[in-house]
Amino acid sequence: MLHETDANWPLIRNLLSDPMYKRMYMAHMRTLNNENFANADYKNLIGQLRTLFDSSVQADPNFLYTYTQYQSNLTTTVSGGGGGPGGTCGVYELMDTRTTYLSGTTQLSAAPPAISAVAADPATAVYGSTVNITASVSNALSSAVYLGYRYKHTDVFVRVAMSDDGLHGDGPAGDGVYGATIPVNSLKMEYYLYAENASAGMFSPERAEHEFYTLFATITMATSADVTVNEFLAGNSSGITNEEGKYKDWIEVKNKTGVPLGLGDLYLSNDLNDRTKWQFPRTAILPANGYLLIWADDQNTTWIDYHTNFNLTLSGDTILLSDSLGVLADSILYQQQTQDLSASRCADGTGPFVDGTTPTPRAMNDCASTGYYVSTASDALIVYPNPASDLVSIRSEKSMQRVEILDLQGQVIEQRELSDDKQVQIGLERFSPGLYLLRVDGLTPVRLVIQ
To answer: Which terminal Cβ of the chain has fewer Cβ within 10 Å, N or C?
Structure first.
């Protein structure tokens, strides 16, 4: 507790001035003392090290002590050499004495709470539901039992109170079983317990937050029909950065369904001969109708985001989304890209890829950014370029019967009858510059700017 009230040591003083933090600190000190010194585990380590370098010690010509003194100094004080007037204290003498002292201090000898029978109900939860965490706790203040939990290994633990009131999955009130109910917002949750009384604290597991309990959850797993590659950027030099603050290429996938999906059965690759090159982690979740960004930076790791084991190439490459059998869910063969502009599906999630769009990572594609306008009446309709000058193209995934251009008063000034065509071009030489409306098969018109 040295410097706990010293203004010149503000970090130590401020932390230890909080009674809970002080008891947590002493709980860890008790664990360190017990697991390394009180149980004599350090002596086993020393024995291994002495065996490892014994021959080197004997061969060292620059010794301050004899080999015999070196051997005896493990347990007893030896004089001479560089040890000063008092000699050199034996390692066991020093550490066993310190261990006895620490174990006898008021802080480490105080009886802590006991925590046992830690359990989750259900043991395997369903993503999006809730789970009850319970434990038997004794010798603790009833208002000082806590659950710490997090959804990702990179998160900070959130600490919430546990109760013995019969309302938190803890069984009858007052039976010494404490509980807390928390939402299951991840496929792998980490948690620990902490309890304290007026004198001491206790963690379970004792090495928390370094160690913790793990809870796994289930979720509907995505199939090849549920997910699509929605956008990618193969030349990122000024857009978003990864967790290291570096500009790296990325791929965005989209959930085409209205339910959250697990991605652990799907793979990304840039090699037709190795379609299962990079597997999504088992904990990867794609929200309902949502987006997920994956860094294509050859890191093959998970930090805050996911990182593949391959890069994208600006001059052209392949992106494959497959299942575990190598069945393609989506495939893109792209040509030369423009630095810092993405390629996006237009319409978002369903249409063909359009190069040179404004990047929209983790969000709906900006299909109008380079002259493409997606109809609000039909997700399959693309009008380009827009604004247009000499020629406008209309492309649809559905067959078109009639295309009309109207003025702002709703008067039809151009009409083209089609025969179930999916693409048509209309010359604009006779149109004056301005804003017009374009309508396909009587659906809600979209804006067309003629320059």
So the answer is: C
Give the containing element (helix H, strand E) for 47: helix 41-59
Asked whether residue 123 falls in the same domain as residue 24, the answer is no
Residue 378 clears pLDDT 50, i.e. is over it: no
Task: State the pLDDT at residue 228.
Answer: 95
Place of tokens 């809970």: 20
Domain count, the chain: 4
Sheet with strand 130-138: strands edge to edge: 114-121, 130-138, 177-183
Which amino acid belongs to residue 439?
Answer: R
Element (H, E) at 97: helix 91-104
Q: Please tell me the predicted confidence (pLDDT) of residue 387.
A: 76
Question: Does residue 81 lie within any of the structural domains?
Answer: yes
Which residues lie closer than 8 Å to 61 by C-beta, 6 or more apart?
none
Give me the percent of the chain exceeding a pLDDT of 70.
96
- Using CA atoms, how far apart are residues 321 and 348, in angstroms rounded to an integer? 17
Question: Do the Cβ atoms of 217 and 126 come closer than 8 Å?
Answer: yes
Q: Maximum CA pair distance of the chain?
A: 109
Asked, for residue 363, whether it belongs to a domain, the answer is no
Q: What angle do CA 232, 233, 234 make, to 5 degrees?
A: 115
Sheet holding 317-323, edge to edge: 278-279, 266-269, 317-323, 328-334
Same domain for 67 and 32: yes
pLDDT at residue 102 tops 90: yes
Quote the domain boundaries for residue 96: 10-109
With beta carbons less than 8 A apart as the criterion, state whether 251 and 243 touch.
no
Structure tokens at 306: 């996911």
